[in-house]
Every structure is written in structure tokens, then in C-alpha cells.
Task: structure prediction
Amino acid sequence: MFGTNPFAPLMQSLPAGFMEWYLCLMAVAVIVGVLVDIMHKGSAKYFFANMKAARSKKGARQVAGGELVSIAVQTAVVDVLASGEFCNPKRRIAHLLTMYGFVTYVVTTAIMVFGDRAASGLVPTLWWVGGLAVLAGGLWFWFFIRADVSAEGNSPFRVMRADLFVLSLIASVAFGLIWAWRGGGTGWMFLAYLLATTVLFGGVYWSKFAHMFFKPAAAFEKRVSRADGTAENLPTQSRDDPEMQKRHSMELLKDAPMDMGLGIKREAPRHY
Result:
């Protein structure tokens, strides 16, 4: 079961090219959804305007091409591939499981649908591994890590519009794995799998799906602003810098150590 292409028998009972066209339609839905989201929120316009304004600030240092390449590599490795923005190790592990599982799941799905329909061995196995990783990371996050659940004591079954992405992702992968485990076919489980997948990729405009395209750009801009000295006009982490010390209005903070105030992190906020 784990080494057999689950889409092979399905594509024999469906009209020719159905799954290929369906995957292409979902890819178009993602592109359109992201573009509409950008136009509606003005994300790209704000990003470039903010970047231009930062570069025009007095005292901004010119960042050379080689340094920009280095910053881009750091952004890709630390912020994107390693999810370095997460300070909570559990949140980071759950995110990495979900991210890499989803990428593996999508890529192997495309290979099995567009490639050799009789594919067996490694590709179908990776499809299962990717799907199980998505469920592990997604369910761990949903039931144990979400701030409104772990810190505020709300029910894990409380659903909001912001939850559309993670819920549709979990549902799509779960229905897909159950469908494959039951032997495939075109029954009701396949329809549920198709519906959940359509909501996942077709609901980009209403979900957080598009954030995966914005976050790398935002992380890159943040690193560039630190390198050129603008740092979005916010104090940096170097309190030993005399110029940074002058920016604090309180005398106590001017000579304060870097770890001052971190006592609040000693205990998780679970007072519900």
C-alpha cells in the first residue's frame, strides 16, 4: 500500500486527463488568490514604499551587492528553511513538520499524477511520509500550541475564519490518506478529498495561504534594514551602542543589560 501509486486506479476510472486538469486548476487558483490578496491588502505596494522610505532616511548605509547576496542566503536558510522566526521550539518543530510535509506531499502528488502512473516504491512512500508529517504538525499545533488554546483556555474546536487554512490543509491530507488506505476509487471518500483540497487551494484569498509568499520578503527586508542601520526606525538589540542608549527615555534602560525584563518568560501564561 505504501509503495503503490494511489492515483493509478483512480485515473483509469475517471475521464482522461481529469486529475491533470484538476491540479492545473488548483495551481491557477493559488496564483489568482495570491494576486487578488496582494491587490486587496496592498501588501506589495506597502512593502516597496516602506523599503524606499527606509533607504531615503538620513544615515542609512549603502548595502553592497555581495552583502545583499549574503543577506538573501541567510534569509533563505534561517528564516525560510529553518523557520528561525519562531522562538518557541515546539512551535518551530510543528511548523517545520507541516511545511516540509506539505511540500513533499504536493510534489509527490504531481509526480504521480503527471509522471509514471505505475510509479511505485520511493515516490508513493514519500507521499505517505509527507502526508503523515502534515497531520503530525498540524494536529499538534491545533490542539496543543495555538495561543487561544494553550494560553487562553479556549476550546480547540473553536473555529474562526483565520483557521480556514490549517483546517482545510488537515482535512485535505487526512481525507487523502484515508482514501488511499481504503484502496482509492471514486467513492464518497474521494469526493470529500476533492472538496477539502478545493477549499484549501481555492480559498487562498480568504485564508492565510498567501502568507507563505509574503514572509520571506518581509524577513529579507528586516535583515536589510538592520544591515543599513535603518531598522525601521526601531531600537536595535545592541544596547552597548551609545547611540542606541540615547534612544531610551528612561534612565534605567540606558545602561540595562540585554537580558533585563526576560523574567516574564519564565512561566507560560496558563492561568485560566
Observations:
- Residues 7-57+66-230 form one domain.
